[in-house]
């Protein structure tokens, strides 16, 4: 209810309270002068109780209205949005106006990022992204082992898409195409597009790939390791082996010549038992 209604109620209740008190005082004075055998005197207690009940009810109502006027309940002046990327929050409010009085439910969407805010978040993860992409390399100007291209980064879940200027030098798994690499180094550019809250920013890397110092076996193992740690397969139980590495076809076979592992303590027990038995 608005203040005007509270004020009207308070005035009415105060008038009723004053009238009841006045009637109660006048009634007692009149009744006390009457003979004790009169009907009005016999019903004195009932009438006085009724007037006192009216006084109490009026007083309680007046106190409630005055309290509502002087100490209004905590009003809500703002709505707080849920954190970025969260689901809509449901807010229940009680509205008090001439338009509508009662409970209402509001669905509050999460805050939208401003472009400057998105840039600040992108900048926060720049060094982490650089380190992740480099992998075992120490500089973008001297790449000698596979790079890593994450699909996302950060607790805000920044999505990342990748573009390679020359995929004949390095492919989209991050593995250099070694047979195409010049002894003096092959140069290309990689572009990471970061997306968050409808905003995008590009991070450009100029890289120079040199022939790997790794042996062919190490190159093969590095390529498989890149697959195992790739965002595309870290949640998978089975990871497909590559069919080519560095542009060269590769086939894998089960190594049946490897002996199964044997518990050494069991062999020791058998040997000791045999010796002692004989």
Features:
4-stranded antiparallel sheet; 278 residues; rod-shaped; 7 helices; alpha+beta; single chain; 3 domains; 8 strands
Brief digest:
The protein has helices at residues 3-32, 39-42, 44-70, 115-124, 126-134, 216-228, 264-277; strands spanning 89-96, 101-108, 152-153, 158-164, 186-196, 199-209, 244-245, 248-249.
Characterization of this structure:
The protein has 278 residues and is of the alpha+beta class. The N and C termini lie far apart (103 Å). Strands 3-4-5-6 form a four-stranded antiparallel beta sheet. Strands 1-2 form a two-stranded antiparallel ribbon. Strands 7-8 form a two-stranded antiparallel sheet. The protein has three domains: 3-70; 82-111, no CATH class; 116-249, no CATH class. The chain has helices at residues 3-32, 39-42, 44-70, 115-124, 126-134, 216-228, 264-277, and strands at 89-96, 101-108, 152-153, 158-164, 186-196, 199-209, 244-245, 248-249.
Write the layout of secondary structure elements.
Elements lengths: L2 H30 L6 H4 L1 H27 L18 E8 L4 E8 L6 H10 L1 H9 L17 E2 L4 E7 L21 E11 L2 E11 L6 H13 L15 E2 L2 E2 L14 H14 L1
Antiparallel strand pairs: 1-2, 3-4, 4-5, 5-6, 7-8
